[in-house]
Amino acid sequence: MIILKLGGSIITEKDAKIPTINDKNLARISKEIKSALNHLDHTNDYNNGLIIVHGAGSFGHPFASEYQIGKPFKIEEDFEKKKIGFSLTQSWVKKLNTVICDALREEGIPVVSIQPSSFVITKNKRIISANLDIIEKYLENGFIPVIYGDVVLDREETIKMAVVSGDQLINYLAKHLKPERVILGTDVDGVFNKNPKKHPDAKIITEVTSLDDLESMDSTTNIDVTGGMIGKIKELIELAEIGIESEIINAEKESFVEKALCGEIVLGTTIKM
Ligand code: IPE
Questions:
Q1: Which contacts (CB < 8 Å, 24+ apart) does range 75-81 have?
Q2: Tens digit of pLDDT for each residue in 62-104?
Q3: DSSP label of 31
Q4: Quick one: three-class SS letters along 181-236?
Q5: Which atom of ligand 1 is nearest to the CA of 166?
Q6: Residue 9 near residue 186 (C-beta atoms within 8 A)
Q7: pLDDT at position 189
Q8: Which of 96, 188, 226 is the pocket-test mutation for ligand 1 (most atoms within 8 Å of CB)?
Q9: What topology is assigned to 2-271 in CATH?
């Protein structure tokens, strides 16, 4: 099985003031996924299907941050307001998921939408309960589940709700479903020692084996409500520790997603032990 993440910065205009899809990327990547699936159908190294995980970009982060989902609160009035924010965020990320599923289905991919807020529960912002039986059943039947960063209920009384990133979902799914490969499509070439969007002399780190490799990394690099690049790598290092390798690639580059799905090496960062 392969788990593929499409980052919010790829499929949406992440810095847009209102939720905006990146139509061009979405259409191109949907085609790439379709042709990779055609190719993989004829090879033997691909078992038990593909799960697509996507981020929220401008459909999630602005709302989650405005309503401080996952931040402690005290008074009942705050909770009422937060519930509206939760509902609003849930609604926008669901809309994004619908658009993504539509684009993939247009290519003839039998996608099925999986909504985390309907079955995932966290404690202190980490998933503690999520029954994956339904996902496994869909995979067995040849469907391609499409799951995404969402808001969920949290057992911790002081926060009551949390944001679950696509990266945390990957961590949980991979630990339980043991995929052969995990691929993360982002808007940068991989992990850099500095933010490549601000520093032209930034160097790519092609292999990360521990958080120490990132010591020199500017900690403000790419921070959003779910932790940006550092948050992503922490999730992936946990997987490397149990023998699941992952790769971060630039999904903005034409054919990279397709090649990576087909098992070809493309420029990027591998996270392994
Ligand atoms: C965030 O998911 C989910 C919400 C803000 C509700 P991600 O953290 O996976 O999204 P991107 O990829 O960074 O946009």
A1: 79/160
A2: 999 999 999 998 887 789 999 999 999 999 999 999 999 999 9
A3: H
A4: EEEEEECCCCEECCCCCCCCCCCEECEECCHHHHCCCCCCCCCCCCCHHHHHHHHH
A5: 9
A6: yes
A7: 93
A8: 226
A9: Carbamate kinase (3.40.1160)
For ligand 1, atom 10: residue with the closest CA: 55
Nearest to 50 by CA among 33, 31, 66: 33
Q: 């790439």: which residue's tokens?
A: 32
Q: If you take atom 3 of ligand 1, which residue's CA is the nearest one? A: 149
**What single DSSP character describes residue 97?**
H
Atom of ligand 1 nearest to the CA of 14: 14
* 258 CA distance to ligand 1 middle (Å): 23
Q: How far is the CA of 254 from the centre of ligand 1 (A)?
A: 23
Enter the tokens of residue 6.
């499409």
Closest ligand 1 atom to residue 150 Cα is: 6
Say if residues 79 and 31 touch (Cβ distance below 8 Å).
no
